[in-house]
Amino acid sequence: MPPFFSGPSVPAILALADGTIFKGYSIGAVGHTTGEVVFNTAMTGYQEILTDPSYSRQIVTLTYPHIGNYGVNTTDVEASKVHAAGLIIRDLPLLASNFRSTQSLGDYLKAENVVAIAGIDTRKLTRILREKGAQAGAILTAAQGAEPSTAQALELARSFPGLAGMDLAKVVSVKAPYEFTETEWKLGEGFGKQTNPQYHVVAFDYGVKRNILRMLAERGCKVTVLPAQSTAADALALNPDGIFLANGPGDPEPCDYAIAASRELIEKGIPTFGICLGHQIMALASGAKTMKMKFGHHGANHPVQDLDSKKVLITSQNHGFAVDPTTLPANCRVTHVSLFDGSLQGFERTDKPAFCFQGHPEASPGPTDVAYLFDRFIGLMQAAEKK
Ligand SMILES: NC(=O)CC[C@H](N)C(=O)O
């Protein structure tokens, strides 16, 4: 057993498609899982990460070595279940210590049927992913009293086709429209509250994170959430003041239904705001192209510059695809750029009240650095109302 490991000792294997094998210990469900292995550099927020629907079909490794320290609770979730395909960590502490904790991370992973592995040299794994790019992988736990098979783990890893071309937004989306009715919630030290709704926002659910809906509700929006494949006519029938295009998993390019619906609504001049997958969908709807990144951006300390105010924002990020800025048409103005690699982080339409952001303004690493984008959306709806 590696010296840094302090959890239970059921053997498990992590295999990467390039043939790399890591041996560790199961800390979640028994069985196997496959997906694209990505690394996330956030020091906290493992529960938000695991439940973020954007991580569907991705196995996440966290670079911070101690994961599980503060247990899990029922309020920090971004969706009703874990969406990540698996979890890879270095050390699961024996003790979860936090007054909000209701369960240990290990018990939560088992209850959610998530295959997860600890005792892994996550620095080495992250270096491989940085050098070679995010790649397919598998976690395989041992059968009762046996060792997991390296050959089987490798075969499983290589069976995952990769995320390029995978349309997952419609898979994780709700199946029927609903109105967001959470009216009071814990926000850090205090409580957030739904204020009197003044605007009706129709949100396309490509895998929406709950905190986005809360931040809209908190700013006086009634939010109706529509399934990903809803049409522009479905949204228009609800007489919206604004359209929200959500985050979500997979490749944005095959989401033709989302691209068509958002194009129609943006062209109609309805104020529109997109986050992450929603940003990519807005770009595709505007005529730009998206591309797969080498290892993407996954973390909570990514500096992004607002080109108008020149301010540097500390942002939360989770994307493996990006908009190719060289393909943006003339009616799209770049507003935000990543200071890590210069990639596009936000743009606005100069001819329509529509803008979008690649990172996650609803997550709070800054902690409120990027929240002003929600206010900007409210401002667009206010301006449209006065017309
Ligand atoms: N968080 C997201 O919305 C992710 C968008 C898209 N699935 C990507 O990986 O780029």
Automatic annotation (TrEMBL):
Task: Identify the enzyme class.
Answer: ligase
Question: What SMART domains does the record point to?
Answer: CPSase_sm_chain (SM01097)
Which CDD domains does this chain map to?
GATase1_CPSase (cd01744)
Catalytic residues (UniProt): C276, H360, E362
Q: Supply the alphabetized keyword list.
A: Amino-acid biosynthesis, Arginine biosynthesis, ATP-binding, Glutamine amidotransferase, Ligase, Nucleotide-binding, Pyrimidine biosynthesis
Mind listing the GO molecular function terms for this protein? ATP binding; carbamoyl-phosphate synthase (glutamine-hydrolyzing) activity
Superkingdom, natural source: Bacteria
* Domain called Carbamoyl-phosphate synthase small subunit N-terminal: residue spans: 10-140
Binding of L-glutamine: at which residues? S54, G248, G250, L277, Q280, N318, G320, F321
Q: Where is this region: CPSase?
A: 1-199
PANTHER family on file: CARBAMOYL-PHOSPHATE SYNTHASE SMALL CHAIN, MULTIFUNCTIONAL TRYPTOPHAN BIOSYNTHESIS PROTEIN-RELATED
Q: Which HAMAP family match?
A: CPSase_S_chain (MF_01209)
Family label:
Belongs to the CarA family.
Q: What does this protein do?
A: Small subunit of the glutamine-dependent carbamoyl phosphate synthetase (CPSase). CPSase catalyzes the formation of carbamoyl phosphate from the ammonia moiety of glutamine, carbonate, and phosphate donated by ATP, constituting the first step of 2 biosynthetic pathways, one leading to arginine and/or urea and the other to pyrimidine nucleotides. The small subunit (glutamine amidotransferase) binds and cleaves glutamine to supply the large subunit with the substrate ammonia.
Q: Under which name does UniProt file this protein?
A: Carbamoyl phosphate synthase small chain
What taxonomic ancestry is recorded?
A: Bacteria, Pseudomonadati, Pseudomonadota, Betaproteobacteria, Burkholderiales
**The encoding gene:** carA
